[in-house]
Design goal:
The chain is 26% helix and 23% strand. It is of the alpha/beta class and 238 residues long. The chain has one domain: 3-Layer(aba) Sandwich (Rossmann fold). Helix 1 packs antiparallel against helix 4. It binds S-adenosylmethionine (SAM).
């Protein structure tokens, strides 16, 4: 092992635990991740949402963690801003950027406060965050106005995986059975923990997640996989 590898290994240990499994000069940051190869699998689902040449494009990665998606965007030539509310994860992202030689702006910011950035972005990545929020619709309402072209949203989904079909514009108050139909939009509230994580608050079913995105002013262009949506802003059109 070279002295440089040993130094990286030491810093990776100090900055851990890691959620993103990155390869930093031959040193893996989370080789025994309990979710296995989930990052690469999700990336292979979403990568076609982005052009291969992103020169001149801007990207906002919300809940960027250690920067996995930010780095994929930077590799394609985009100007990337990654935000997260965790100093620990931002520390990992900055160290990884240094080792990998990526010029990415990482900032500490709550998802609710992205408007403070004061600019819009061609692409927004909002993956793995929505179910961690106590106020998911508030966050979407703050995020969507920043999207110029596309937003890629991924969220944990549970319950029925299909939509029951078109939802009517209104229902009489005597309509009760509808709410028991498996494909009706629903959000499950987690009072305590799910998967040992007290920050898992609201878990939608597929219909619920799609309905929330539409309600926040997005048009779903593609339901690309479980809990994965490629959307464009509607800007008021319905
Ligand atoms: C499950 S990880 C997902 C990381 C990455 N986006 C991905 O998909 O691999 C959730 C990330 O969102 C961040 N996060 C959670 N709540 C947040 C909030 N309110 N504002 C900003 N970041 C938040 C966490 O610190 C963490 O880095």
């Amino acid at each position: 092992m070279t002295a440089e590898t040993a130094t990286i290994q030491q810093r990776v240990r100090e900055l851990g635990p890691w959620f993103h499994d990155l390869d930093l000069g031959g040193v893996r940051t989370a080789p025994n991740h309990p979710l296995g190869n989930f990052l690469q699998e999700l990336w292979s689902t979403v990568e076609r949402a982005f052009p291969s040449d992103m020169s001149g494009k801007t990207v906002l990665d919300i809940g960027c963690n250690a920067g996995f998606y930010s780095f994929r965007m930077a590799e394609r030539g985009a100007r990337v801003t990654g935000v997260d509310h965790s100093d620990a994860y931002l520390g990992q992202a900055r160290f990884a950027a240094e080792i990998l030689g990526h010029d990415v702006e990482f900032r500490r910011l709550e998802a609710y406060d992205v408007g403070e950035l004061g600019r819009r972005f061609d692409y927004v990545i909002f993956m793995g965050v929505l179910y961690h929020l106590r106020y998911p619709l508030l966050a979407l309402d703050r995020v969507v106005p920043l999207v110029k072209e596309w937003i890629v949203v991924q969220s944990l989904v549970r319950g029925p995986q299909w939509e029951r079909g078109a939802i009517a514009g209104d229902y009489p108050i005597t309509e009760e059975r509808l709410f028991e139909e498996p494909g009706f939009p629903a959000l499950y509230f987690v009072e305590h923990r799910y998967a040992g994580d007290p920050t898992n608050w609201w878990i939608a079913n597929e219909a619920g997640l799609a309905a929330m995105l539409r309600s926040a002013g997005l048009r779903v262009e593609e339901h690309a996989g479980p809990g994965v949506y490629f959307c464009r802003p509607t800007r008021g059109e319905r």
